[in-house]
Request: fold
Amino acid sequence: MTPTAAPRTLDVREAKRRRAAARRQYIRDTYVLWRRNRLMVLGTGIIAGLLLVAAVAPLLATYSPYEQVLADRLLPPSWAHLFGTDGLGRDIASRVVYGSRVSLTIALLVAAISTPIGMLIGILSGYLGGAVDEILMRLADIFLAFPRLILAIAFAAALGPGVENAIIAIAIAHWPSYARLARAETLNVKNNDYIQAMRVLGVGKLHIMAGHIAPMCLSSIIVRMSLDMGTIILTAAGLGFLGLGAQPPMPEWGLMVADGRQFLVDQWWVSTLPGLAILVVVMGFNLLGDGIRDVLDPRQRQL
Amino acid sequence: MGRYLLRRLVTLTITLAGIMVMTFFTSLVIPLDPLASLAGPQAPPETVERLRTLYGFDQPLYIQFGRYVARLGRGDLGVSFQTSRPVLQDILTYFPATLELATFAIFLGICVGIPLGVLSAVYKNRFIDQFCRVLSLVGVSTPVFWLGLVLMLVFYFKLGWLPEPGRLDIMLIEPPRVVGVLLIDSVIARDWAVFRDAITHLIMPASVLGLVGVAGISRITRSSMLEVLSQEYVKTARIKGLGEFLVITRHALRNAMVPTVTVVGLTYGLLLEGSVLTETIFSWPGLGRYLANAFLTLDLNTIVGGTMFVALTFCVVNLVVDVAYAYLNPKITYTEP
Reply:
Protein backbone atom coordinates (compact mmCIF):
# COMPACT_ATOMS: atom_id res chain seq x y z
CA MET A 1 0.00 0.00 0.00
CA THR A 2 1.26 3.50 -0.77
CA PRO A 3 1.12 6.02 2.07
CA THR A 4 -1.75 8.05 0.62
CA ALA A 5 -2.93 9.03 4.06
CA ALA A 6 0.00 11.41 4.71
CA PRO A 7 -1.18 14.83 5.94
CA ARG A 8 -1.10 17.45 3.19
CA THR A 9 -0.02 20.34 5.37
CA LEU A 10 3.68 19.86 4.58
CA ASP A 11 5.05 19.35 1.14
CA VAL A 12 6.62 15.96 0.61
CA ARG A 13 10.20 17.16 0.43
CA GLU A 14 9.96 19.11 3.68
CA ALA A 15 8.37 16.10 5.40
CA LYS A 16 11.18 13.86 4.21
CA ARG A 17 13.80 16.32 5.38
CA ARG A 18 12.27 16.52 8.85
CA ARG A 19 11.97 12.77 9.10
CA ALA A 20 15.63 12.34 8.19
CA ALA A 21 16.62 14.98 10.74
CA ALA A 22 14.60 13.23 13.43
CA ARG A 23 16.26 9.96 12.59
CA ARG A 24 19.73 11.53 12.78
CA GLN A 25 18.81 13.04 16.14
CA TYR A 26 17.64 9.61 17.35
CA ILE A 27 20.92 8.00 16.34
CA ARG A 28 22.90 10.80 18.00
CA ASP A 29 20.88 10.43 21.22
CA THR A 30 21.39 6.68 21.14
CA TYR A 31 25.13 7.22 20.87
CA VAL A 32 25.08 9.62 23.83
CA LEU A 33 23.09 7.10 25.87
CA TRP A 34 25.49 4.34 24.89
CA ARG A 35 28.56 6.39 25.84
CA ARG A 36 27.05 7.36 29.18
CA ASN A 37 26.39 3.74 30.19
CA ARG A 38 29.88 2.51 30.98
CA LEU A 39 28.75 -1.06 31.64
CA MET A 40 27.10 -1.18 28.24
CA VAL A 41 30.31 0.03 26.61
CA LEU A 42 32.08 -2.81 28.40
CA GLY A 43 29.46 -5.31 27.20
CA THR A 44 29.72 -4.03 23.65
CA GLY A 45 33.49 -4.38 23.89
CA ILE A 46 33.26 -7.98 25.08
CA ILE A 47 30.83 -8.95 22.34
CA ALA A 48 32.80 -7.10 19.68
CA GLY A 49 35.87 -8.98 20.91
CA LEU A 50 33.96 -12.25 20.71
CA LEU A 51 32.88 -11.54 17.13
CA LEU A 52 36.42 -10.60 16.21
CA VAL A 53 37.91 -13.72 17.82
CA ALA A 54 35.35 -15.91 16.08
CA ALA A 55 36.05 -14.23 12.74
CA VAL A 56 39.82 -14.56 12.84
CA ALA A 57 40.01 -17.79 14.86
CA PRO A 58 42.49 -19.48 12.49
CA LEU A 59 44.89 -16.53 12.88
CA LEU A 60 44.68 -16.43 16.69
CA ALA A 61 44.85 -20.14 17.31
CA THR A 62 48.47 -21.20 17.40
CA TYR A 63 47.57 -24.89 17.15
CA SER A 64 44.82 -26.90 15.51
CA PRO A 65 41.92 -27.38 17.95
CA TYR A 66 41.78 -31.07 17.03
CA GLU A 67 45.45 -31.96 16.83
CA GLN A 68 46.41 -34.38 19.60
CA VAL A 69 50.00 -34.43 20.80
CA LEU A 70 49.95 -37.15 23.42
CA ALA A 71 53.52 -36.39 24.48
CA ASP A 72 52.35 -32.90 25.51
CA ARG A 73 49.30 -33.87 27.51
CA LEU A 74 48.22 -31.90 30.59
CA LEU A 75 50.94 -29.24 30.31
CA PRO A 76 50.38 -26.25 32.62
CA PRO A 77 49.83 -22.80 31.11
CA SER A 78 53.04 -21.44 29.59
CA TRP A 79 54.08 -19.16 26.73
CA ALA A 80 53.89 -22.03 24.27
CA HIS A 81 50.45 -23.07 25.52
CA LEU A 82 48.74 -20.03 27.07
CA PHE A 83 45.96 -22.04 28.72
CA GLY A 84 47.92 -25.30 28.92
CA THR A 85 46.94 -28.53 27.21
CA ASP A 86 44.16 -31.01 27.90
CA GLY A 87 44.11 -34.76 28.50
CA LEU A 88 44.72 -35.50 24.83
CA GLY A 89 47.51 -32.95 24.42
CA ARG A 90 45.36 -30.42 22.59
CA ASP A 91 46.11 -26.72 23.07
CA ILE A 92 43.29 -25.36 25.28
CA ALA A 93 43.72 -21.73 24.19
CA SER A 94 43.22 -22.71 20.55
CA ARG A 95 40.18 -24.77 21.47
CA VAL A 96 38.71 -21.87 23.45
CA VAL A 97 39.28 -19.58 20.47
CA TYR A 98 37.51 -21.98 18.11
CA GLY A 99 34.82 -22.55 20.75
CA SER A 100 33.74 -18.94 20.33
CA ARG A 101 32.48 -19.92 16.87
CA VAL A 102 30.44 -22.77 18.30
CA SER A 103 28.80 -20.67 21.02
CA LEU A 104 28.10 -17.79 18.69
CA THR A 105 26.59 -20.07 16.07
CA ILE A 106 24.35 -21.74 18.65
CA ALA A 107 23.15 -18.41 20.07
CA LEU A 108 22.45 -16.91 16.65
CA LEU A 109 20.70 -19.98 15.28
CA VAL A 110 18.50 -20.34 18.38
CA ALA A 111 17.53 -16.70 18.06
CA ALA A 112 16.93 -17.09 14.32
CA ILE A 113 14.65 -20.09 14.89
CA SER A 114 12.74 -19.15 18.02
CA THR A 115 12.00 -15.47 17.46
CA PRO A 116 10.21 -15.83 14.08
CA ILE A 117 8.17 -18.77 15.41
CA GLY A 118 7.32 -16.87 18.58
CA MET A 119 6.41 -13.72 16.67
CA LEU A 120 4.27 -15.62 14.17
CA ILE A 121 2.34 -17.43 16.88
CA GLY A 122 2.04 -14.38 19.11
CA ILE A 123 0.82 -12.06 16.37
CA LEU A 124 -1.67 -14.62 15.00
CA SER A 125 -2.95 -15.25 18.47
CA GLY A 126 -3.24 -11.60 19.40
CA TYR A 127 -4.68 -10.35 16.14
CA LEU A 128 -7.13 -13.12 15.34
CA GLY A 129 -8.21 -13.70 18.95
CA GLY A 130 -10.97 -16.16 19.81
CA ALA A 131 -10.37 -19.87 19.41
CA VAL A 132 -7.02 -19.40 17.65
CA ASP A 133 -5.82 -17.34 20.61
CA GLU A 134 -7.05 -19.90 23.16
CA ILE A 135 -5.41 -22.85 21.39
CA LEU A 136 -2.09 -21.18 20.70
CA MET A 137 -1.78 -19.69 24.17
CA ARG A 138 -2.67 -22.98 25.89
CA LEU A 139 0.02 -24.56 23.73
CA ALA A 140 2.47 -21.93 24.96
CA ASP A 141 1.31 -22.59 28.54
CA ILE A 142 2.20 -26.25 28.17
CA PHE A 143 5.74 -25.30 27.21
CA LEU A 144 5.95 -22.68 29.94
CA ALA A 145 4.87 -25.27 32.50
CA PHE A 146 8.40 -26.67 32.37
CA PRO A 147 11.50 -24.95 33.61
CA ARG A 148 13.39 -24.01 30.45
CA LEU A 149 16.50 -26.01 31.21
CA ILE A 150 14.50 -29.20 31.88
CA LEU A 151 12.55 -28.70 28.65
CA ALA A 152 15.73 -28.17 26.64
CA ILE A 153 17.35 -31.23 28.25
CA ALA A 154 14.27 -33.34 27.57
CA PHE A 155 14.13 -32.39 23.90
CA ALA A 156 17.87 -32.73 23.46
CA ALA A 157 17.68 -36.24 24.93
CA ALA A 158 14.66 -37.16 22.81
CA LEU A 159 16.21 -35.88 19.59
CA GLY A 160 19.56 -37.48 20.34
CA PRO A 161 22.79 -35.78 21.39
CA GLY A 162 24.43 -33.42 18.94
CA VAL A 163 24.86 -29.73 18.47
CA GLU A 164 22.11 -29.38 15.82
CA ASN A 165 19.58 -31.07 18.08
CA ALA A 166 20.70 -28.97 21.02
CA ILE A 167 19.95 -25.87 18.95
CA ILE A 168 16.47 -27.16 18.10
CA ALA A 169 15.86 -28.14 21.72
CA ILE A 170 16.85 -24.72 23.08
CA ALA A 171 14.76 -23.00 20.42
CA ILE A 172 11.74 -25.11 21.41
CA ALA A 173 12.26 -24.05 25.01
CA HIS A 174 12.48 -20.37 24.11
CA TRP A 175 9.69 -19.59 21.63
CA PRO A 176 6.77 -19.36 24.12
CA SER A 177 8.12 -16.28 25.87
CA TYR A 178 8.52 -14.51 22.53
CA ALA A 179 4.98 -15.56 21.59
CA ARG A 180 3.61 -14.11 24.84
CA LEU A 181 5.47 -10.87 24.27
CA ALA A 182 4.41 -10.54 20.62
CA ARG A 183 0.81 -11.23 21.61
CA ALA A 184 0.86 -8.52 24.26
CA GLU A 185 2.34 -6.00 21.83
CA THR A 186 -0.22 -6.98 19.18
CA LEU A 187 -3.09 -6.46 21.62
CA ASN A 188 -1.60 -3.06 22.37
CA VAL A 189 -1.51 -1.83 18.79
CA LYS A 190 -4.31 -3.71 17.10
CA ASN A 191 -7.04 -1.22 18.00
CA ASN A 192 -4.99 1.85 17.14
CA ASP A 193 -6.57 4.24 14.66
CA TYR A 194 -4.15 3.53 11.85
CA ILE A 195 -4.82 -0.20 11.99
CA GLN A 196 -8.57 0.46 12.11
CA ALA A 197 -8.23 2.76 9.12
CA MET A 198 -6.44 0.07 7.13
CA ARG A 199 -9.08 -2.44 8.04
CA VAL A 200 -11.77 -0.06 6.84
CA LEU A 201 -9.86 0.46 3.60
CA GLY A 202 -10.06 -3.27 3.06
CA VAL A 203 -6.40 -4.18 3.57
CA GLY A 204 -5.97 -7.92 4.05
CA LYS A 205 -5.35 -9.40 7.49
CA LEU A 206 -2.08 -10.95 6.42
CA HIS A 207 -0.81 -7.67 5.08
CA ILE A 208 -1.75 -5.84 8.29
CA MET A 209 -0.12 -8.47 10.47
CA ALA A 210 3.08 -8.79 8.48
CA GLY A 211 3.51 -5.20 7.37
CA HIS A 212 2.11 -3.13 10.21
CA ILE A 213 1.89 -5.14 13.40
CA ALA A 214 5.10 -7.18 13.18
CA PRO A 215 7.33 -4.09 12.97
CA MET A 216 5.65 -2.71 16.09
CA CYS A 217 6.54 -5.88 18.02
CA LEU A 218 10.07 -5.91 16.78
CA SER A 219 11.75 -3.59 19.27
CA SER A 220 10.51 -5.37 22.38
CA ILE A 221 11.34 -8.73 20.79
CA ILE A 222 14.88 -7.54 20.06
CA VAL A 223 15.27 -6.34 23.65
CA ARG A 224 14.08 -9.68 25.02
CA MET A 225 16.27 -11.58 22.58
CA SER A 226 19.39 -9.66 23.55
CA LEU A 227 18.62 -10.31 27.22
CA ASP A 228 18.16 -14.01 26.41
CA MET A 229 21.44 -14.46 24.52
CA GLY A 230 23.36 -15.13 27.72
CA THR A 231 20.82 -17.69 28.91
CA ILE A 232 20.97 -19.45 25.55
CA ILE A 233 24.75 -19.77 25.73
CA LEU A 234 24.53 -21.00 29.34
CA THR A 235 21.91 -23.60 28.39
CA ALA A 236 23.97 -24.77 25.43
CA ALA A 237 27.05 -25.07 27.61
CA GLY A 238 25.02 -26.94 30.24
CA LEU A 239 23.79 -29.39 27.60
CA GLY A 240 27.35 -29.85 26.39
CA PHE A 241 28.51 -30.41 29.94
CA LEU A 242 25.88 -33.12 30.50
CA GLY A 243 26.87 -34.80 27.24
CA LEU A 244 23.57 -33.93 25.55
CA GLY A 245 24.82 -31.09 23.37
CA ALA A 246 27.96 -30.81 21.28
CA GLN A 247 29.85 -34.08 21.04
CA PRO A 248 33.61 -34.66 21.20
CA PRO A 249 35.91 -33.65 19.63
CA MET A 250 34.04 -30.41 18.97
CA PRO A 251 35.69 -27.51 20.86
CA GLU A 252 32.56 -26.55 22.80
CA TRP A 253 33.16 -24.74 26.09
CA GLY A 254 30.69 -26.72 28.24
CA LEU A 255 32.05 -29.98 26.90
CA MET A 256 35.61 -28.84 27.64
CA VAL A 257 34.67 -28.08 31.26
CA ALA A 258 33.23 -31.59 31.54
CA ASP A 259 36.36 -33.10 29.98
CA GLY A 260 38.55 -31.40 32.54
CA ARG A 261 36.55 -32.64 35.52
CA GLN A 262 38.67 -35.75 35.92
CA PHE A 263 41.84 -33.63 36.10
CA LEU A 264 40.37 -31.02 38.44
CA VAL A 265 42.64 -31.62 41.42
CA ASP A 266 46.06 -31.54 39.79
CA GLN A 267 45.39 -29.87 36.44
CA TRP A 268 42.92 -27.14 37.32
CA TRP A 269 43.37 -25.26 34.05
CA VAL A 270 41.75 -27.93 31.91
CA SER A 271 38.23 -27.20 33.06
CA THR A 272 38.37 -23.80 34.74
CA LEU A 273 39.74 -21.75 31.84
CA PRO A 274 37.09 -22.74 29.26
CA GLY A 275 34.46 -22.06 31.96
CA LEU A 276 35.89 -18.60 32.42
CA ALA A 277 35.33 -17.99 28.71
CA ILE A 278 31.64 -18.85 29.16
CA LEU A 279 31.39 -16.48 32.14
CA VAL A 280 32.97 -13.56 30.28
CA VAL A 281 30.89 -13.98 27.13
CA VAL A 282 27.59 -14.45 29.00
CA MET A 283 28.39 -11.39 31.10
CA GLY A 284 29.08 -9.43 27.93
CA PHE A 285 25.72 -10.43 26.46
CA ASN A 286 23.90 -9.58 29.70
CA LEU A 287 25.53 -6.14 29.93
CA LEU A 288 24.79 -5.45 26.29
CA GLY A 289 21.21 -6.68 26.68
CA ASP A 290 20.58 -4.45 29.70
CA GLY A 291 22.01 -1.53 27.77
CA ILE A 292 19.94 -2.25 24.65
CA ARG A 293 16.84 -2.33 26.84
CA ASP A 294 17.67 1.07 28.29
CA VAL A 295 18.30 2.51 24.84
CA LEU A 296 15.45 0.97 22.85
CA ASP A 297 12.65 0.89 25.42
CA PRO A 298 10.91 4.27 25.18
CA ARG A 299 9.86 4.01 28.84
CA GLN A 300 13.48 3.69 29.95
CA ARG A 301 15.00 6.01 27.37
CA GLN A 302 15.90 9.18 29.23
CA LEU A 303 18.43 11.67 28.01
CA MET B 1 -10.96 -14.98 44.18
CA GLY B 2 -12.84 -18.28 44.08
CA ARG B 3 -13.53 -17.84 40.39
CA TYR B 4 -9.92 -16.97 39.74
CA LEU B 5 -8.75 -20.08 41.55
CA LEU B 6 -11.21 -22.19 39.58
CA ARG B 7 -10.02 -20.70 36.32
CA ARG B 8 -6.42 -21.39 37.25
CA LEU B 9 -7.23 -24.97 38.18
CA VAL B 10 -9.01 -25.50 34.86
CA THR B 11 -6.00 -24.09 33.01
CA LEU B 12 -3.72 -26.34 35.05
CA THR B 13 -5.79 -29.38 34.07
CA ILE B 14 -5.66 -28.41 30.39
CA THR B 15 -1.92 -27.89 30.66
CA LEU B 16 -1.44 -31.30 32.24
CA ALA B 17 -3.57 -32.93 29.54
CA GLY B 18 -1.44 -31.21 26.94
CA ILE B 19 1.71 -32.45 28.65
CA MET B 20 0.32 -36.00 28.53
CA VAL B 21 -0.33 -35.70 24.79
CA MET B 22 3.12 -34.24 24.28
CA THR B 23 4.96 -36.87 26.28
CA PHE B 24 2.96 -39.64 24.58
CA PHE B 25 3.94 -38.45 21.14
CA THR B 26 7.50 -37.79 22.22
CA SER B 27 7.74 -41.43 23.21
CA LEU B 28 6.60 -42.34 19.69
CA VAL B 29 9.12 -40.05 18.03
CA ILE B 30 12.09 -41.13 20.13
CA PRO B 31 14.39 -43.24 17.99
CA LEU B 32 14.17 -46.15 20.38
CA ASP B 33 12.01 -49.23 19.95
CA PRO B 34 10.68 -50.24 23.38
CA LEU B 35 10.13 -53.78 22.09
CA ALA B 36 13.68 -54.18 20.92
CA SER B 37 15.01 -53.23 24.33
CA LEU B 38 12.51 -55.51 26.07
CA ALA B 39 13.12 -58.54 23.88
CA GLY B 40 16.83 -58.13 23.36
CA PRO B 41 18.71 -58.03 20.07
CA GLN B 42 18.62 -61.77 19.33
CA ALA B 43 14.90 -62.31 19.96
CA PRO B 44 13.08 -64.24 17.20
CA PRO B 45 10.32 -62.33 15.36
CA GLU B 46 7.56 -64.42 17.05
CA THR B 47 8.67 -63.30 20.48
CA VAL B 48 8.67 -59.67 19.38
CA GLU B 49 5.17 -60.14 17.95
CA ARG B 50 3.95 -61.76 21.16
CA LEU B 51 5.38 -58.91 23.21
CA ARG B 52 3.77 -56.45 20.84
CA THR B 53 0.34 -57.94 21.53
CA LEU B 54 1.08 -58.36 25.22
CA TYR B 55 1.96 -54.69 25.72
CA GLY B 56 -0.75 -53.48 23.34
CA PHE B 57 1.57 -51.95 20.77
CA ASP B 58 -0.54 -53.56 18.01
CA GLN B 59 -3.58 -51.50 19.00
CA PRO B 60 -4.52 -48.27 17.21
CA LEU B 61 -2.85 -45.15 18.58
CA TYR B 62 -5.95 -43.71 20.25
CA ILE B 63 -6.46 -46.90 22.26
CA GLN B 64 -2.78 -46.87 23.26
CA PHE B 65 -3.18 -43.23 24.28
CA GLY B 66 -6.33 -44.03 26.29
CA ARG B 67 -4.49 -46.76 28.16
CA TYR B 68 -1.57 -44.45 28.75
CA VAL B 69 -3.82 -41.78 30.26
CA ALA B 70 -5.66 -44.34 32.40
CA ARG B 71 -2.33 -45.65 33.67
CA LEU B 72 -1.12 -42.15 34.54
CA GLY B 73 -4.48 -41.43 36.19
CA ARG B 74 -3.88 -44.33 38.58
CA GLY B 75 -0.52 -42.78 39.47
CA ASP B 76 1.27 -45.60 37.66
CA LEU B 77 4.24 -44.03 35.88
CA GLY B 78 5.71 -47.35 34.79
CA VAL B 79 8.95 -48.98 35.78
CA SER B 80 12.36 -47.32 35.44
CA PHE B 81 14.84 -49.23 33.26
CA GLN B 82 17.68 -47.83 35.37
CA THR B 83 16.58 -48.97 38.79
CA SER B 84 13.87 -51.55 37.93
CA ARG B 85 11.63 -49.86 40.49
CA PRO B 86 8.36 -48.02 39.85
CA VAL B 87 9.16 -44.49 38.68
CA LEU B 88 6.81 -42.92 41.22
CA GLN B 89 8.57 -44.69 44.05
CA ASP B 90 11.94 -43.50 42.73
CA ILE B 91 10.70 -39.94 42.50
CA LEU B 92 9.43 -40.04 46.07
CA THR B 93 12.80 -41.43 47.18
CA TYR B 94 14.87 -38.77 45.44
CA PHE B 95 12.64 -35.73 45.79
CA PRO B 96 13.26 -35.04 49.53
CA ALA B 97 16.99 -34.57 48.87
CA THR B 98 16.17 -32.00 46.20
CA LEU B 99 13.65 -30.35 48.50
CA GLU B 100 16.29 -30.09 51.23
CA LEU B 101 18.86 -28.58 48.88
CA ALA B 102 16.44 -26.11 47.27
CA THR B 103 15.03 -25.01 50.62
CA PHE B 104 18.47 -24.42 52.08
CA ALA B 105 19.48 -22.56 48.91
CA ILE B 106 16.43 -20.29 48.93
CA PHE B 107 17.02 -19.66 52.63
CA LEU B 108 20.56 -18.48 51.80
CA GLY B 109 19.17 -16.45 48.91
CA ILE B 110 16.68 -14.67 51.19
CA CYS B 111 19.21 -14.05 53.99
CA VAL B 112 21.71 -12.52 51.60
CA GLY B 113 19.46 -11.10 48.89
CA ILE B 114 17.00 -9.04 50.95
CA PRO B 115 19.58 -7.19 53.09
CA LEU B 116 21.70 -6.52 50.00
CA GLY B 117 18.66 -5.20 48.14
CA VAL B 118 17.66 -2.93 51.04
CA LEU B 119 21.19 -1.61 51.47
CA SER B 120 21.61 -0.88 47.79
CA ALA B 121 18.28 0.99 47.71
CA VAL B 122 19.15 3.04 50.81
CA TYR B 123 22.67 3.78 49.56
CA LYS B 124 21.67 4.13 45.93
CA ASN B 125 24.64 4.55 43.53
CA ARG B 126 27.11 4.22 46.39
CA PHE B 127 29.67 1.46 46.73
CA ILE B 128 27.29 -1.17 48.15
CA ASP B 129 24.85 -0.56 45.28
CA GLN B 130 27.53 -1.02 42.64
CA PHE B 131 28.77 -4.10 44.46
CA CYS B 132 25.27 -5.61 44.39
CA ARG B 133 24.89 -4.83 40.73
CA VAL B 134 28.13 -6.62 39.93
CA LEU B 135 27.21 -9.53 42.21
CA SER B 136 23.83 -10.07 40.59
CA LEU B 137 25.40 -9.72 37.16
CA VAL B 138 27.93 -12.42 38.03
CA GLY B 139 25.11 -14.46 39.56
CA VAL B 140 23.17 -14.63 36.33
CA SER B 141 26.22 -14.98 34.11
CA THR B 142 28.09 -17.80 35.84
CA PRO B 143 27.67 -21.31 34.51
CA VAL B 144 26.58 -23.21 37.66
CA PHE B 145 28.48 -26.35 36.72
CA TRP B 146 31.69 -24.34 36.41
CA LEU B 147 31.14 -22.46 39.67
CA GLY B 148 30.51 -25.79 41.41
CA LEU B 149 33.80 -27.18 40.14
CA VAL B 150 35.75 -24.08 41.13
CA LEU B 151 34.28 -24.01 44.65
CA MET B 152 35.00 -27.69 45.02
CA LEU B 153 38.58 -27.20 43.85
CA VAL B 154 39.18 -24.36 46.31
CA PHE B 155 37.20 -25.32 49.41
CA TYR B 156 37.46 -29.09 49.27
CA PHE B 157 40.61 -30.07 47.41
CA LYS B 158 42.88 -27.12 48.25
CA LEU B 159 41.71 -25.71 51.58
CA GLY B 160 39.85 -28.71 52.91
CA TRP B 161 37.33 -26.49 54.73
CA LEU B 162 34.24 -28.19 53.36
CA PRO B 163 33.51 -31.90 52.91
CA GLU B 164 33.51 -34.01 49.76
CA PRO B 165 30.52 -34.05 47.38
CA GLY B 166 27.55 -36.11 48.45
CA ARG B 167 24.99 -35.80 51.17
CA LEU B 168 26.72 -37.34 54.16
CA ASP B 169 30.14 -38.58 55.21
CA ILE B 170 30.53 -42.26 54.28
CA MET B 171 31.51 -43.08 57.85
CA LEU B 172 28.17 -41.88 59.19
CA ILE B 173 24.98 -43.91 59.12
CA GLU B 174 21.82 -42.29 57.86
CA PRO B 175 19.16 -41.89 60.54
CA PRO B 176 15.93 -43.83 60.11
CA ARG B 177 14.01 -42.34 57.21
CA VAL B 178 10.96 -40.41 58.33
CA VAL B 179 10.49 -37.66 55.77
CA GLY B 180 13.67 -38.21 53.75
CA VAL B 181 15.08 -34.78 54.61
CA LEU B 182 18.32 -35.49 56.48
CA LEU B 183 18.23 -32.34 58.59
CA ILE B 184 14.78 -33.26 59.92
CA ASP B 185 15.37 -36.99 60.21
CA SER B 186 18.55 -36.48 62.20
CA VAL B 187 16.79 -34.13 64.62
CA ILE B 188 14.06 -36.70 65.12
CA ALA B 189 16.69 -39.35 65.78
CA ARG B 190 18.67 -36.87 67.97
CA ASP B 191 21.75 -37.73 65.95
CA TRP B 192 23.65 -34.43 66.16
CA ALA B 193 26.77 -35.71 64.39
CA VAL B 194 24.70 -36.45 61.31
CA PHE B 195 22.92 -33.11 61.60
CA ARG B 196 26.22 -31.18 61.68
CA ASP B 197 27.70 -33.21 58.86
CA ALA B 198 24.59 -32.80 56.71
CA ILE B 199 24.77 -29.02 57.11
CA THR B 200 28.43 -28.87 56.10
CA HIS B 201 27.61 -30.99 53.06
CA LEU B 202 24.80 -28.62 52.13
CA ILE B 203 26.84 -25.41 52.20
CA MET B 204 28.58 -25.68 48.83
CA PRO B 205 25.76 -26.94 46.62
CA ALA B 206 23.28 -24.62 48.28
CA SER B 207 25.55 -21.61 47.77
CA VAL B 208 25.92 -22.43 44.09
CA LEU B 209 22.19 -22.85 43.70
CA GLY B 210 21.40 -19.86 45.91
CA LEU B 211 23.60 -17.44 43.96
CA VAL B 212 21.02 -17.34 41.18
CA GLY B 213 18.38 -16.55 43.79
CA VAL B 214 20.47 -13.79 45.38
CA ALA B 215 20.68 -12.01 42.03
CA GLY B 216 16.93 -11.96 41.44
CA ILE B 217 15.90 -11.31 45.04
CA SER B 218 18.30 -8.42 45.66
CA ARG B 219 17.33 -6.78 42.37
CA ILE B 220 13.59 -6.87 43.02
CA THR B 221 14.02 -5.79 46.65
CA ARG B 222 16.11 -2.84 45.52
CA SER B 223 13.63 -1.62 42.95
CA SER B 224 10.56 -2.00 45.15
CA MET B 225 12.37 -0.37 48.09
CA LEU B 226 13.28 2.57 45.88
CA GLU B 227 9.65 2.93 44.92
CA VAL B 228 8.40 2.72 48.49
CA LEU B 229 11.04 5.10 49.87
CA SER B 230 9.75 7.87 47.62
CA GLN B 231 6.19 7.54 48.98
CA GLU B 232 4.49 10.21 51.06
CA TYR B 233 3.96 8.02 54.11
CA VAL B 234 7.67 7.36 54.40
CA LYS B 235 8.21 11.09 54.40
CA THR B 236 5.50 11.41 57.06
CA ALA B 237 7.17 8.79 59.21
CA ARG B 238 10.45 10.71 58.96
CA ILE B 239 8.77 14.03 59.78
CA LYS B 240 7.22 12.42 62.84
CA GLY B 241 10.78 12.00 64.00
CA LEU B 242 11.10 8.23 63.67
CA GLY B 243 14.63 6.92 63.47
CA GLU B 244 15.86 6.02 59.99
CA PHE B 245 16.24 2.38 60.95
CA LEU B 246 12.63 2.12 62.07
CA VAL B 247 11.42 3.96 58.97
CA ILE B 248 13.22 1.51 56.74
CA THR B 249 12.35 -1.71 58.55
CA ARG B 250 8.84 -0.97 59.82
CA HIS B 251 7.40 1.29 57.17
CA ALA B 252 9.27 0.77 53.94
CA LEU B 253 10.43 -2.83 53.95
CA ARG B 254 7.08 -4.31 54.92
CA ASN B 255 5.43 -2.73 51.92
CA ALA B 256 8.31 -3.45 49.62
CA MET B 257 8.14 -7.15 50.46
CA VAL B 258 5.13 -7.91 48.25
CA PRO B 259 6.96 -8.17 44.92
CA THR B 260 9.89 -9.83 46.68
CA VAL B 261 7.67 -12.61 47.95
CA THR B 262 6.60 -13.34 44.39
CA VAL B 263 10.16 -13.52 43.15
CA VAL B 264 11.18 -15.71 46.09
CA GLY B 265 8.32 -18.09 45.31
CA LEU B 266 9.09 -18.29 41.61
CA THR B 267 12.80 -18.76 42.29
CA TYR B 268 12.00 -21.53 44.74
CA GLY B 269 9.97 -23.27 42.06
CA LEU B 270 12.90 -22.96 39.68
CA LEU B 271 15.40 -24.23 42.25
CA LEU B 272 13.28 -27.28 42.94
CA GLU B 273 13.59 -28.25 39.30
CA GLY B 274 16.62 -26.37 38.08
CA SER B 275 19.13 -28.31 40.10
CA VAL B 276 20.03 -30.87 37.42
CA LEU B 277 23.51 -29.41 36.93
CA THR B 278 24.22 -28.65 40.59
CA GLU B 279 23.17 -32.11 41.69
CA THR B 280 25.28 -33.70 38.98
CA ILE B 281 28.39 -31.79 40.09
CA PHE B 282 27.95 -32.43 43.79
CA SER B 283 26.77 -36.08 43.44
CA TRP B 284 23.62 -35.05 45.27
CA PRO B 285 21.19 -37.98 45.26
CA GLY B 286 18.19 -35.87 44.26
CA LEU B 287 15.59 -35.72 41.54
CA GLY B 288 17.75 -33.62 39.23
CA ARG B 289 20.56 -36.13 39.05
CA TYR B 290 18.07 -38.98 38.72
CA LEU B 291 16.45 -37.22 35.77
CA ALA B 292 19.79 -36.34 34.18
CA ASN B 293 20.79 -40.01 34.27
CA ALA B 294 17.44 -40.98 32.79
CA PHE B 295 17.94 -38.52 29.94
CA LEU B 296 21.42 -39.82 29.24
CA THR B 297 20.34 -43.47 29.16
CA LEU B 298 17.03 -42.72 27.38
CA ASP B 299 15.10 -44.32 30.22
CA LEU B 300 11.73 -43.51 28.70
CA ASN B 301 9.35 -44.16 31.59
CA THR B 302 11.50 -42.12 33.93
CA ILE B 303 11.78 -39.26 31.45
CA VAL B 304 8.01 -39.14 30.96
CA GLY B 305 7.14 -39.59 34.63
CA GLY B 306 9.86 -37.29 35.87
CA THR B 307 9.01 -34.43 33.53
CA MET B 308 5.31 -34.81 34.42
CA PHE B 309 6.18 -34.56 38.09
CA VAL B 310 8.45 -31.57 37.50
CA ALA B 311 5.80 -29.75 35.47
CA LEU B 312 3.15 -30.45 38.09
CA THR B 313 5.26 -29.14 41.00
CA PHE B 314 6.30 -26.12 38.99
CA CYS B 315 2.67 -25.26 38.14
CA VAL B 316 1.51 -25.78 41.71
CA VAL B 317 4.29 -23.58 43.12
CA ASN B 318 3.42 -20.85 40.61
CA LEU B 319 -0.24 -21.10 41.55
CA VAL B 320 0.54 -20.83 45.25
CA VAL B 321 2.75 -17.82 44.58
CA ASP B 322 -0.01 -16.03 42.64
CA VAL B 323 -2.56 -16.71 45.35
CA ALA B 324 -0.14 -15.58 48.08
CA TYR B 325 0.47 -12.40 46.11
CA ALA B 326 -3.24 -11.62 46.05
CA TYR B 327 -3.47 -12.36 49.76
CA LEU B 328 -0.53 -10.10 50.64
CA ASN B 329 -1.63 -7.22 48.50
CA PRO B 330 -5.34 -6.48 49.03
CA LYS B 331 -5.24 -3.94 46.21
CA ILE B 332 -4.95 -6.78 43.71
CA THR B 333 -8.09 -8.61 42.79
CA TYR B 334 -8.20 -11.26 40.17
CA THR B 335 -11.16 -10.80 37.90
CA GLU B 336 -11.87 -12.00 34.42
CA PRO B 337 -9.51 -10.23 32.02
